[in-house]
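User: Could you check the structure of this?
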Amino acid sequence: MADAYQPAATTPFNKAAGIVAMSLLDFCGVMVYFAVTLGLILVSRRLAHEADLRTVTIHDYSIWVERLPSDAQAEELVEFFSQYGEVSLPFQFCMAVLAN
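Assistant: Sure, the predicted structure tokens are below.
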């Protein structure tokens, strides 16, 4: 039974200092988490922008036309815009849908 007895610690644990230390460590952990999260968001946005610059889509060659005359015919518009380049089928399809 002599082993069961252990002497008291020579320096008592200061609870207030321990709580403050744990709070500071917790705060530092949260700040590191937010910094890493913000860094990942910024990196992913940059990578998405770079990928968008390297990828060619139909939106890179699309235009939006507003305030057309109400009596404009699809054939007239195709003829007008054909002088600037090829007019694709979606344009003709949209005009047919809008005409109905």
